[in-house]
Design a protein that fits this description.
The chain is α/β, with parallel strands linked by helices. The protein contains eleven helices and eight strands.
């Protein structure tokens, strides 16, 4: 049965699925509302859709607590091994020494597979604290996922980060900024730098269809993410699995492209144990 047919039948998708942009811990600031917040509820939703695992950055990072954020990821990964993985989250306002200590600690935990930045929320991308983490990521071969909405942080900062580090694997969230115009601008940058990638969450706000986004960015450089629990994961999941894209392209977006980013990484790796059980 094709992926689209499985989705229409209400079945969990049988191919590997990695949700590369997620949040745990409830967050109600500025009107955000989540219909489910516990890790048990999150994993139940994953089972319903056929999502093998998520990579997460807890909501406490928005409020500025880098230490609690990484501790919560470590706890969730221990509670749900193979289902929840973590990004090492850094907040530049806590200073370079604190970030060094955080990276030293969590880079040794195999449940952490890369970095997540809330650049924009936490100021510009082009600051020494982010530079330190970017250098570490480039040296260790792990991916970095950075927030970008509108032009915040700026694409100038994104280009600076990647131009200085040709080996860096940098994923920009929200289709490069959340709209047709920002996607177009980011795609121009992607054409210059082959190690830039596009994550799709929040795509319902974008005027482009999923088919158009993939055509613009390239089927090998689009990464599935849902932004759960801020957004219901069924939104962007549905836009991929119910699209007219071929199953081969869907498989790339849903897991294969992200797994390739982990090739050669010295941090943790994703093992799709749950997929093996389902099949």
């Amino acid at each position: 049965m094709e992926i689209r047919e499985q989705a229409f039948a209400g079945q969990p998708i049988s191919v590997p699925v990695i949700d590369a942009h997620t949040h745990i811990l409830g967050y109600g600031h500025l009107g955000w509302y989540q219909s489910f917040t516990s890790n048990d509820d999150i994993v139940a939703m994953m089972d319903c859709l056929g999502i093998d695992c998520i990579v997460t950055a807890p909501h406490s990072l928005i409020m500025g607590d880098m230490d609690l954020t990484n501790e919560e990821s470590a706890k969730a990964a221990k509670e749900f091994p193979g289902r929840i993985y973590g990004y090492i989250c850094v907040r530049p306002q806590q200073g370079l020494e604190a970030i060094r200590t955080t990276i030293e600690k969590y880079s040794k935990n195999p449940a952490f597979i890369g970095f997540k930045f809330l650049a924009g929320y936490h100021g510009p991308l082009g600051v020494p604290e982010y530079d330190y983490a970017l250098d570490f990521a480039a040296e260790t071969g792990c991916p970095v996922l950075s927030h970008l909405w509108g032009n915040d942080p700026t694409l100038t900062d994104v280009e600076r980060a990647i131009k200085q580090r040709p080996e860096l694997k940098l994923i920009i969230a929200h289709q490069g900024g959340g709209s047709r115009e920002t996607t177009d601008a980011y795609v121009k940058l992607m054409k210059q730098y082959p190690n830039l990638y596009m994550e799709i969450c929040g795509s319902l706000y974008n005027q482009y269809s999923m088919e158009e986004i993939v055509e613009l960015a390239g089927e090998d450089r689009v990464i599935f993410g849902s932004d759960q629990i801020n957004l219901d994961p069924r939104f962007d999941f549905g836009r991929v699995v119910l699209s007219t894209l071929s199953d081969e392209i869907k498989k790339k977006i849903l897991a294969q492209n992200f797994l390739k980013l982990l090739d050669g990484s010295k941090l943790g790796k994703i093992v799709l144990k749950n997929h093996q059980k389902r099949n």
